[in-house]
Specification:
The chain has about 160 residues and is an alpha/beta fold. About 40% of the residues lie in helices and about 25% in strands. The strands form two sheets. The chain has a seven-stranded mixed beta sheet, with helices on both faces. Strands 5-9 form a two-stranded antiparallel sheet. Helix 1 links the parallel strand 1 and strand 2. It is globular.
């Protein structure tokens, strides 16, 4: 089971867009749980998390990923920012990755050459740090550093422009 951990970034509209894209993945059984992490005290974000069945966690920006992942129910986690919109056929790509390279993290890059290269460089060439777009085992994300460079998924994610 995969848990989606979403940083709300104090943007309820963007969070709603991301959560709406996850609904088909929940129906297919790919996503089993969601955790919404926010660094504010926004009642709209807390209510949205509650209405969608997601867990709600308050944490500072620097602790957002680790706090959210600590609440994950599954062994695998996908990290998203509010406003991230995976392409329509993203779930088969994730399922295929888990079947063919189950121990290796993966990256669903942002659409656009410059953004994708920045992300790829950040997780592959430098620190192998944790960032949005990653699909990885919960234990690796909690450690703060990936054990190895992620495999690049064939699908991308867009950013909602609200």
């Amino acid at each position: 089971m995969i848990t989606a951990v979403i940083r709300a970034n104090r943007d309820a509209r963007a969070l709603a867009a991301t959560l709406s894209v996850l609904i088909p993945a929940v129906a297919k059984g790919v996503i089993g749980h969601a955790v919404v992490v926010d660094d504010g005290d926004d009642a709209a974000i807390a209510r949205l998390a509650d209405e969608t069945g997601a867990s709600y966690v308050r944490a500072t920006a620097g602790e957002a990923w680790s706090s959210g992942v600590a609440q994950a129910r599954g062994d695998w986690v996908i990290l998203l920012e509010a406003g991230d919109l995976p392409e329509p056929q993203w779930t088969p790509s994730i399922e295929r990755h888990l079947l063919t390279a189950a121990a290796r993290p993966a990256l669903m890059p942002l659409r656009g050459m410059a953004a994708a290269l920045r992300e790829w460089g950040a997780v592959s060439l430098r620190s192998r740090g944790v960032r949005a777009g990653l699909l990885a085992p919960k234990t690796q994300i909690l450690s703060g550093k990936l054990a190895r460079a992620p495999r690049r998924l064939t699908v991308r994610r867009d950013r909602a422009e609200l």
